[in-house]
């Protein structure tokens, strides 16, 4: 007999028997979403050389995935709640896998950006569905442990993406990094059909279409502004996006605060624990994605590691995430989430502060401790925050709860790459100009300032034209300029995360449990049982 769930599995007498196998499928689905970005950073040099990408092209290859992903999650999470959470997961996996195949076949910047955008649409279906299905499938007593494994998977994907991409790039072109997703998506698709029970909200009225569309427009414009402004200047496009985002967010808040069944009840942000948890998730991924962006470049361009070697050397981060996740499972119930989350954020700040010591003479050994500390911090903090966010939503809005968590994550990651990436670019350009002042023609200097890869390409031309000694001097100048830029960018990131840590510590209530007060899910179920 086919099992159809109209309320969470935990409302039955016994929990769903295959829930841990179902969690494995959900974690596989999460894995490819995160790997889609981290693997691409390793493939970026090969892609740039093959397609002749400009700095702007490369930025939009990376961020073309982010805009639809962040913009659509809230609306698609609500649709999944109403109609089918498993259906949203299945459709998202199909879209994501098909777009990955398309991305491997195209041979232009426009084609790759378009494929990445469609992948972002698929990810916007998958990501909130993974969390909502997790919360609907696991009983309260096991939910925190399941969420800990879910967040640890995200940390694993950060390091596994470059490792797998590096292995492929040894014998294949950059297009193979798109195909990483296809077999995993296929396995997850079959696993979802076999192991994940259908689920949707027991009581869900009409979807707030106006609120959903306002969220799409405002979040999409906000992410576009975050990407466009810092990297390409505050021209007409960025200013227009800023205006649309501002007006859209105001309209969204006003509409949602008056709607009887809003797509997101914005009054939840009055809860200090809920607001603090979302802020902590955003700040952590700002730090993680920003650091990942410049560390992978430093390992490849300055220290000279291959893509595979780069992936291997990011593994301490993944291992530390699992250790931190195990620790938070023990410490959070005893100390409260305020202690574990703020301790983790302090650890993240320390990791970035340690990276300010990087210079042209630094080796990989100088990066290991910051990577380990950052991984421990992620594992310690993110699971309690995600558990708190999901616990604030009733069963009928679990998809929206997952979307809120994931939107905070994605906005933080976008800010990290955009803001810290912009600081990195500006600092590198400035330091390189100082180092080679009067030694290069203006056109060659302008080209070298575009990126560290472009700088090394110019150094190769200098060596061919002026001799190996001059070429080596140019390489040293590029390496020094980029290393100094990494140190400066790390300082900016540490300051941002330190200020955020203070704010989160003020917001989070004392002795906070892993969920916000009594979870709204439990309150609703008790009312139904009563």
Commentary on this structure:
By secondary structure, this protein is mainly α. The chain has 2 domains: 9-207 and 263-431 and 480-529, MFS general substrate transporter like domains (Growth Hormone, Chain: A, Up-down Bundle); 208-262. The chain is 79% helix and 0% strand. It has helices at residues 19-51, 55-63, 66-82, 85-105, 109-137, 140-169, 176-179, 181-195, 209-232, 236-258, 272-302, 307-313, 315-335, 337-354, 365-391, 398-435, 442-448, 452-466, 468-507, 520-529. The longest helix has 40 residues, at 468-507. It starts with 18 loop residues before the first helix and ends with a helix. Mean pLDDT is 85; it is low at 1-12 and 512-530.
Count of runs of 4 or more consecutive helical residues: 20
Mean pLDDT: 85
CATH fold descriptor of the largest domain: Growth Hormone, Chain: A
Our measurement of the CA-to-CA distance between the termini, rounded to an integer number of angstroms, reads 29 Å
What is the CATH superfamily of the largest domain?
A: MFS general substrate transporter like domains
- What's the main sheet like? none
* Net shape: globular
Give the DSSP E fraction (strand runs of 2 or more residues). Answer: under 5%
Q: Can you tell me the residue ranges where pLDDT is under 50 for at least 5 consecutive residues?
A: 1-12, 512-530
């Amino acid at each position: 007999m086919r099992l159809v769930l109209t309320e969470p599995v935990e409302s039955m007498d016994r929990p769903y028997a295959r829930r841990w196998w179902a969690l494995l499928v959900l974690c596989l689905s999460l894995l490819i979403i995160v790997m889609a970005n981290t693997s691409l950073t390793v493939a970026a040099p090969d892609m740039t050389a093959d397609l002749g990408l400009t700095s702007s092209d490369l930025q939009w290859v990376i961020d073309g995935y982010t805009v639809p992903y962040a913009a659509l999650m809230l609306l698609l999470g609500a649709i999944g709640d109403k109609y089918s959470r498993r259906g949203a997961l299945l459709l998202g996996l199909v879209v994501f896998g098909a777009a990955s195949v398309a991305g491997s076949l195209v041979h232009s910047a426009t084609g790759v950006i378009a494929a990445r955008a469609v992948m972002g649409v698929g990810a916007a279906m998958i990501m909130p569905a993974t969390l909502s299905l997790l919360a609907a499938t696991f009983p309260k007593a096991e939910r925190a442990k399941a969420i800990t494994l879910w967040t640890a998977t995200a940390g694993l994907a950060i390091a596994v993406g470059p490792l797998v991409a590096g292995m492929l790039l040894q014998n294949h072109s950059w297009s193979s990094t798109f195909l990483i997703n296809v077999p995993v998506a296929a396995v997850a698709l079959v696993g979802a059909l076999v192991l994940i029970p259908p689920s949707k909200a027991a009581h869900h009225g009409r979807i707030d279409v106006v609120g959903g569309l306002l969220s799409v427009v405002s979040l999409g414009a906000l992410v576009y502004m975050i990407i466009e402004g810092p990297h390409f200047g505050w021209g007409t496009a960025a200013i227009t996006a800023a205006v649309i985002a501002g007006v859209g967010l105001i309209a969204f808040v006003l509409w949602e605060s008056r709607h009887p069944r809003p797509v997101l009840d914005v009054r939840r942000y009055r809860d200090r624990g809920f607001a603090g948890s979302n802020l902590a998730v955003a700040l952590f991924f700002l730090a993680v994605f920003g650091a990942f962006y410049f560390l992978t470049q430093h390992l490849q361009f300055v220290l000279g590691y291959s893509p595979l070697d780069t992936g291997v050397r990011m593994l301490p981060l993944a291992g530390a995430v699992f250790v931190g996740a195990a620790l938070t499972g023990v410490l959070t119930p005893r100390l409260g989430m305020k202690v574990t989350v703020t301790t983790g954020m302090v650890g993240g700040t320390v990791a970035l502060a340690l990276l300010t010591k990087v210079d042209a003479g630094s080796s990989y050994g100088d990066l290991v401790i910051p990577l380990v500390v950052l991984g421990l911090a992620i594992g310690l903090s993110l699971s309690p925050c995600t558990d708190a966010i999901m616990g604030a939503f009733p069963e009928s809005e679990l998809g929206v709860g997952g979307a809120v968590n994931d939107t905070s994550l994605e906005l933080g990651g976008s800010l990290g790459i955009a803001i810290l990436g912009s600081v990195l670019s500006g600092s590198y350009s400035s330091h390189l100009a100082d180092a080679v002042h009067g030694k290069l023609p203006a056109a060659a200097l302008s080209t070298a300032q575009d990126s560290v890869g472009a700088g090394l390409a110019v150094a190769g031309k200098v060596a061919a034209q002026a001799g190996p000694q001059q070429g080596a001097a140019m390489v040293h100048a590029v390496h020094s300029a980029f290393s100094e830029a990494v140190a400066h960018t790390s300082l900016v990131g540490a300051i941002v995360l330190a200020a955020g840590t203070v704010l989160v510590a003020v917001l989070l209530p004392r002795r906070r449990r892993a969920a916000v007060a009594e979870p709204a899910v439990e309150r609703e179920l008790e009312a139904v049982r009563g």
